[in-house]
């Protein structure tokens, strides 16, 4: 069952510590009902995604979302007329456990997930966002402070179009979209420069545009950091 909250499909549009994108007044971004209905209809076509949303709660994670590329790519597939799961290489399942940021605790969730999702045959990338600061410099070449919550982490992902998370608990589906959904439906790849690097962004652009040719790309150098947005929720 889908429950609507505040007229926006249980959507939360918040702006944690992330930079405002040029020419986007993020304090006034709203996710309208038509966008939410449209997103919901498209995501329902991705059966793997629906299984993830239905079963993720079995892992006992706090404050979790399925997000990033699997959400936007499901939309792109619909708009391109492709199979809903076309070219989706993995599914990101993120959560926040600040009480135990050990690798062992995260790996316990990963091992449990192998059993819970053993029948769906896709790669699921599970990350405790509370411990990302421990390894990100070695992997991506820059350091960060510890995230305060999973929403803050989602808000710093490399492109605005992938800064979307979906959560389903007790029959209620929630959407977290700190940059709104306009870029998602307009298929505009726009850099989110808060933590990302040009090399990371350009690599994603090159890969995605070969698969989804209708995508429009905003070049890294054409997008500038703006002011810190205020926290905002609806």
UniProtKB/TrEMBL annotation:
It holds the Pfam family NTP_transf_6. It comes from the Bacteria. PANTHER family: BLL1166 PROTEIN. This is Nucleotidyltransferase family protein.
């Amino acid at each position: 069952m889908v429950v609507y909250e505040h007229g926006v499909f249980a959507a939360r549009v918040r702006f944690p510590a992330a930079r405002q994108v040029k020419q986007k007044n993020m304090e006034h971004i709203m996710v309208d009902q038509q966008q939410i209905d449209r997103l919901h209809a498209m995501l329902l076509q991705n059966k793997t995604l629906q299984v993830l949303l239905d079963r993720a709660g079995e892992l006992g994670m706090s404050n979790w979302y399925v997000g990033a590329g699997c959400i936007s790519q499901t939309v792109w597939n619909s708009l391109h007329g492709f199979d809903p799961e076309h070219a989706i290489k993995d599914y990101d399942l993120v959560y926040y456990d600040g009480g135990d940021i050990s690798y062992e605790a995260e790996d316990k969730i990963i091992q449990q997930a192998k059993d819970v999702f053993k029948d769906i045959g896709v790669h699921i990338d599970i990350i405790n966002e509370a411990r990302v600061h421990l390894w990100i410099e070695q992997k991506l070449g820059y350091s960060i402070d510890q995230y305060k919550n999973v929403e803050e982490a989602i808000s710093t992902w490399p492109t605005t179009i992938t800064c979307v998370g979906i959560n389903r608990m007790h029959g209620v589906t929630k959407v977290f979209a700190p940059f709104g959904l306009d870029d998602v439906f307009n298929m505009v790849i726009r850099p989110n420069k808060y933590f990302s690097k040009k090399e990371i962004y350009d690599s994603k652009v090159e890969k995605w545009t070969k698969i989804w040719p209708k995508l429009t790309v905003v070049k890294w150098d054409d997008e500038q950091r703006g002011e810190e947005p205020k926290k905002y929720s609806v």
